[in-house]
Write a structure and sequence with these properties.
This protein has 119 residues and is mainly α. The chain is built from five helices and no strands. It has one domain.
């Protein structure tokens, strides 16, 4: 019982940190006049929090996509892309992730009624 609680706690902590990283990096890139150097320093700073947390196996499509996004974002400052290309790529991916997270809320009301009737 204690092991299950601990696993659940570690899993939630890891997921929360991944989401915090995503939100922080997205919000940082929405600022004006950022340089690639500033971006690199910021990513290094916020990625340290994530390095201290134990990695957990994630199974859902959203969570695996989130994990891939964080890894990709952490490596972008070292790429040859300029800050505008990085900003565009991260914005696109972050919006796609948000849509994935709320995929259930995109179902129209009329379709929800049909699903209930079929059961």
């Amino acid at each position: 019982m204690i092991d299950k609680k601990k696993e659940k706690y570690e899993r939630l902590k890891y997921i929360r940190e991944l989401e915090k990283f995503t939100n922080r990096i997205y919000n940082f890139l929405n600022q004006e006049n950022i340089t690639k150097k500033d971006f690199k320093e910021y990513v290094d700073k916020i990625f340290k929090n994530l390095e201290n947390i134990k990695k957990v196996i994630l199974k859902s499509e959203y969570l695996t996509s989130l994990e891939k996004f964080v890894e990709k974002s952490a490596n972008l400052p070292n790429s040859s892309k300029n800050i505008n290309e990085i900003k565009e790529e991260i914005t696109y991916e972050a919006n796609r992730l948000r849509k994935l997270k709320r995929v259930k809320s995109y179902q129209k009301e009329k379709h929800k009624k049909r699903a209930i009737d079929n059961e």
